[in-house]
Every structure is written in structure tokens, then in C-alpha cells.
Amino acid sequence: MLPGLRAAVDDAKAKAAATRRRKAAAWQPAETDPVARVLVDIALAHLDRPFDYAVPTAMAQSAVPGARVKVRFAGQDVDGYVVERASTTDHTGALQPLRRVVSPEPVLAPEIVELSEVLARRYAGARSDVLRLAVPPRHAATEKVDSPPAPAPPDLDAPTAWSAVEHADAFLRRLGAGEAPRAVWSAAPGDDWPAMVAEAVATTYATGRGVLVCVPDRRDVARVDAALAHLLPGHHVCLTADGGPAARYRDFLAVCRGARRIVVGTRSAAFAPVHDLGLVVIWDDGDDLHAEPRAPYPHTREVLLLRAGQQGTAALLGGVARTPEAEQLVASGWAHELTVPRQVLRSRARVEVVPAEDRSVGTRVPRAAYDAIRRGLAGGPVLVQTPRAGYAASLACDTCRAPARCVVCTGPLVVDGPAVPPHCRWCGHVEPAWACSTCGGHGLRAPVRGEARTAEELGRMFPGTTVRSSSGDRVVDRVSASPDLVVATVGAEPVAEEGYAAVVVLDTWLSLARADLRAAEEALRRWFNAAVLVRPGGHVVAVGDPAHPALQALVRWDPAGFARREVHERSQAHLPPAARLATVTGDLGALDDVLHLLDLPDGAEVLGPVPADDEHRVLLRVPRSSGEALSRSLGDLQRVRSARKLDPVRIQVDPLTI
């Protein structure tokens, strides 16, 4: 070999050897805390625990607790989070090294790791499912941008929005002293609840602590956002999905880095890793939007209460109505009650219930409701709440009252507008010349009328008045003080600038007709949320049965009394919150296996199985004191079924509806 060629070969070999030495050195375990405990993102219940991996020297500084990593698991690369660095391991063999650090950003805080474990145990689920709810997807470009620091807190005046609420001064004083009071608060007509929440937030923030506020939807987020922007401009972030993944991840990183310590958002914001958390707030905990539709199905209220207990924070459960769960917190002494005195309530709104006229006649607006609308329009806008959207949600024969059915598939007929022929809701078949199969009649009536039909009827009753509709995809956020008629469905009621002169609630019978445990509770919540929009001194009229307990509670403006009644009745019937429930859904064979494998606590009842859509469902009921044992048994069941690779079943602990 020529001397020059030999020298080139020797040089290449030396470089290759040096590269191998550098790589070998890089894959040597780190000198300090060489073991990383990783929560792997796998939805297998029997593997729901941290696994130990070796930390290579090259990753010693980046594989910090909370960082995202890639690891080798079951022959493939999977995602995970480092939850702890340790110096030793109980593993007997050689540890697999981390494949790579996806991001050194510590997005999983230690308190959220602990919370995920508690929630997984509480709801018989997997921590990986909880972490998918807690940590948003990564946006790499956003991580490269530093979060701007929050401005210095401004000097704040003493809270004034709470002046009419009994015991509110003591609650705010304890917040200002850095303590952890807990309260259940019932808002009243004339209360600017976003401003009241903002004052509680500002009082806590002035002590150097962070605050987490969870509300049902984006409209509520916008109202609290505006109140905080007025009181504490530049000090908070809103965690919602509306801004897109980049904006959401940017705001999430600002919270992780401690640049923002006030968070407002919907249910997923309950997991925000707020630094020095001092107060958690939930508004309208009875709204079903607080119930997570993804496994393990946690409720925002339970997440925040667990965080309050885990981190020793103050808690505020606010709303116009009161849930039995919130009332139980008051009855047990866990929380104190914040309400407006009775004499103040009487001065703020006049509420009455008038009997509904016979639904067989053309109008469903009694004279008293008509007069309330007429008088209200003389001084400002009037809100009319109706429980259904659309035009005619169902049709019946005008002669014999038999439901109108499609001749093709027997589905229900509906009408979408005044000049549109009836069509089938199931198959879409149009019936321009419908005839009743029972009596042969050709006339149709609408026993259930939607917001569009209601707006049409009211437009004929009050000619020359502007009628606005708010429902579905056409939700109006705010209306002016002009004397307009606003017809809105439940949850789509706009906020009037100076409040409504009158509020009329129609078709209360329809809200009460739901076949559900929480039908009366939910109906009253809907009516209260509409009635609270009335201006001080305004008039509220509900059309329905004056003897019904829910409507009586509306007239008295007594959400606490109705909640106490619900708790008492449910205790006698062994229903939540006096009992703990869980549902197991799957095919009959899987449910049979479940009942043979499940080790239920003493006093447990098994109800079912019963058909549930295309599957079957079993209901498990235990006394409240055995709730933890039930969750533990269901968790053990999930691990056994996962290890044996049995057919999956869906488990929901404390489902919102039964």
C-alpha cells in the first residue's frame, strides 16, 4: 500500500474510533441520578405505573422531571413523561436507556403527577388518559419563544361588588390574609358575577398566590376575561381551544414557567400547573359541560376540590342555582355559605309562576306573561327563554293528537319553517300531503315549538317590535338596552347591557319531562340562569304548574332550599350524592365476566344489565362511605381484564346522568 494511502486509512480509522468512544461515553449513565422514572403513554391498566430507564450522560441535563421523552417499550418507541430522577432502581437487570428527550420543557408539574394518580384511582381509569387531558399537544416552535413576564400587580381598591353578600367580607378578608377559606356562593339578580370573581381573584393575587377559574363555555370565559382585563390587565391567560393549538400551548407554557399565575378556562384548565396556587373557582358546577366526555370522565368540580385538598388552597363554588353536591359540602361543614339576604332579593326582582293555558289552543303565552312582556318593552329589552331550538320539533294530528309519522320509515315528522313542508327527521322523506293513519285527518299541530316558531308568534303579538333569536350556531352574546324581544334557547341567552326589563320562561313542563335523575335540578338551573339576567326591579314570569317544587323554589329564589330537598329525597332513595354509583357498559358476555371477577364492597347493589344503545349496562350502587372501595375494586377489575386481554368495557364512576 502506498504511504499516502496508508496514512489516509489510518486517519479514517482513528476518527471512527474517536466517534465510537464519544458515542459510548454519551450513552454511559449520568453521574448524578442516573435513573429516570417514566410514565409511559399506554392505555393498558395493568401497566399503569412508572417504569425505570437509564439516563445517558448526553441527556443528563435535559431529562428533567416533567420533560417529554421517547422510550423503548414492548418493541416500539412510545411517548412518556419523566416524573422523577433517582439514584437507584429496584430493577434487577440492565435498564434500557432513554431513546431521546423530545423536549426539555418541564410541562408536567409534580402536583399534576400526584393529581393524575388520585384521579385515576378515583375514577377507575389510567393515568395516561388523565395526562392527555392535563397536558396539551406540543407545539415545537412555540417553545422557542420566551414567555413575557407579568407586569407588577396594580394597587387595588377594596372589593365593592360583594357588598350585598352576607359573610363575603370575612371570606375576602381571609383570602387577603393568605388563608384557605372555602365557600359555596349563590348569585342573585343584579349581581355582576364576573366582576365578583375578578375581585376574589385580585384579592388572592395580591398575596403573591395564583388563581384558577373554571367556567362552562367560551362565553363565560369571555365575560371573566373582560372583568380581569379591567381589574388586572396583562396578568392572566385564557386556556381554551378557540385560539388554536399554538396559542393554547403558548398560554400553557406561560403558566408552566410562572410568567402567568391567573388562569381562566373551561374544564381542561382545571389541570393548569399554576405556580403557588392559592384559590380555585368553579362557576355553575351543575352545567353538564363540566363533565369530561373522555375517559376516565372526571368532573371539573371534583378535580378542583381534589386540588384544593392536595395543595391546601381556598375554594369558591359559585352559581345561580345550587347542586346537591355543593349543598352537601355546606351541610358537612367543608364550606361556608355566601348568599344575598332575603330582603335584598325581594327588592331586586319580582318572580311569579302563572299556569300554562291548555296546550291544545294556538297560543302558549298566558295573559300574565303577555302583560309582563308588554310592560317590559316599555322600558327595555325582554328575554323569552324556550327549551327547544328550530321551528316545530315534533308534529301531531290536529284532530286526534296522534304523533305524525313518516310513511316510509315511521320516523317523526318535523317542520323547519313556516313555508317548508313536513319532512322525516330520520330519513329526510318530504310529506307535502300528509294524512293521519289513525283518523285520516290532514291537519298538523306542533305540541313542541322551537325558538324560531316562538319568535314568529311573538312577532305577530307585538307588531313593530324587533325580535331577535339566539340558539344553536346563531348565538348572540350581547344585546343593547333598546326595547327588543330576545327569544333564546337554554344556554344561549344574551347578556343585556343594563339587564332585561322582564324575563319570561316558556314551556317549563318540557324541561321537567326529561327522564333523568337530575331533571328537576337541571330545569331549575336553566330557569335561574335566565332569571338572573333581569335588571334590579325587573319582572320574571315562568309559565307552568305553580305547585311544582322546582317552580316554587324559583318564585322564592331559594336554590339552597331546593338543593336541601333534593339531598333529602335522594338520601331516602339511596341516590347520589348520598350514594356512589358506577356504570359498566359492554356486551353481555363481557358484563357476565365483570360480575364474576368484580370483588364488590359490603352493601353493594347490582342493578341490571339493561339495554344501552347497541350494548348493555350494569349499574353498581354503594353507600357513600364505600365509594373509595368501589373505585378500588373497579380499578383492580380493569387491571385484571387488561392483563388477560379480555373484551373491553366502559366504566364511569359517578356519571352525571343515569
What does this structure look like?
The protein is of the alpha/beta class. The chain folds into four domains: 69 residues, no CATH class; 173 residues, Rossmann fold (3-Layer(aba) Sandwich), CATH 3.40.50; 157 residues, P-loop containing nucleotide triphosphate hydrolases (Rossmann fold); 75 residues, Alpha-Beta Plaits. Helices cover 33% and strands 22% of the residues. Strands 8-9-7-10-11-6-12 form a seven-stranded parallel sheet, with helices on both faces. Strands 13-24-23-14-21-19 form a six-stranded parallel sheet, sandwiched between helices. Helix 2 packs across helix 3, helix 2 crosses helix 9 and helix 15 packs parallel to helix 16.
Labels describing this entry:
658 residues, alpha/beta, Rossmann fold, 4 domains, 7-stranded parallel β-sheet, 6-stranded parallel β-sheet, 33% helix, globular
Q: Count the helices. How many?
A: 19
Mean model confidence by pLDDT = 89
CATH class of the largest domain equals Alpha Beta
What is the name of the CATH topology of the largest domain?
A: Rossmann fold
CATH architecture of the largest domain: 3-Layer(aba) Sandwich
Major β-sheet profile: 7 strands, parallel
- How many beta-strand segments? 28
Shape assignment: globular
Number of domains: 4
Class by SSE composition? alpha/beta
Give the strand content.
Answer: 15-25%
Radius of gyration: 30 Å
Give a brief description.
The protein is of the alpha/beta class.
Topology:
Elements: H1 3-26, E1 35-40, E2 51-54, E3 68-73, E4 76-86, E5 100-103, H2 110-122, H3 127-134, H4 140-143, H5 168-176, E6 182-186, H6 193-205, E7 210-214, H7 218-231, E8 236-239, H8 245-256, E9 262-265, E10 277-283, H9 300-311, E11 314-319, H10 324-331, E12 336-338, H11 342-348, E13 349-354, H12 367-377, E14 382-385, E15 392-397, E16 413-414, E17 423-424, E18 444-449, H13 451-461, E19 467-470, E20 478-479, E21 485-488, E22 495-496, E23 500-505, H14 508-512, H15 519-531, E24 534-543, H16 549-556, H17 559-572, E25 579-586, H18 588-597, E26 605-612, E27 615-623, H19 627-644, E28 650-653
Parallel strand pairs: 6-11, 6-12, 7-9, 7-10, 8-9, 10-11, 13-24, 14-21, 14-23, 19-21, 20-22, 23-24
Antiparallel strand pairs: 1-2, 1-4, 3-4, 3-5, 15-18, 16-17, 25-27, 25-28, 26-27
Helix pairs in contact: 2-3, 2-9, 6-7, 10-17, 15-16
